[in-house]
């Protein structure tokens, strides 16, 4: 999956607050390009002093990383209370954290095991995919993505997993991540009409209508009888 290392991301990775402030002043895009946003990069690296200038410039604290974690969850997983305190007032409440407070978020993250330590991880990709499908049906898209992500680590060539991740990301309002998952589908299996449909749906969500039309037409070339794709075009 492509990660776009913009000058702002590079400045964060070398921990240069001065460069970050200068880039922001020069008009750098604090929303980022692709799955690694500047705020997520700062949370990953535990750069407490970087949050305020990024947030003041319009960085979105509600954008998730590829693991469906918010910056505040990343900070909590790194056991950085001060970071959580900074991000808490600007982060939208999420339903799966019942105690929506600084202490509650820290406690919630500690209660969630790492993938490799999770007994579910040892159940195999088919089981994880099934659990992801169940989570999707009850509209728990964050859990669904987590299950699908775990499954893709065990079976990265299963295009259905990437397809399912794509639709989950759309339901979470993350068009860029939905598109990346769809493009992964097409890369693994270019002759699969569903991959074209997912790519088209993601482009539609992003309002890239011409690219969406191209993707849907690619799908119809592969299967002229695909009603789902035909309906999307008309």
From TrEMBL:
Claim: Cell membrane is one of the keywords in the record: no
TPR repeats: 125-158, 193-226
Xref: SMART domains: TPR
ANK repeat spans: 34-66
One of the Pfam families matching this protein, by short name: Ank_2
Keyword Acetylation part of the UniProt annotation: no
Keywords (A to Z) from UniProt: ANK repeat, Repeat, TPR repeat
Identification of the protein by name: Uncharacterized protein
Organism annotation: Triticum aestivum (Wheat)
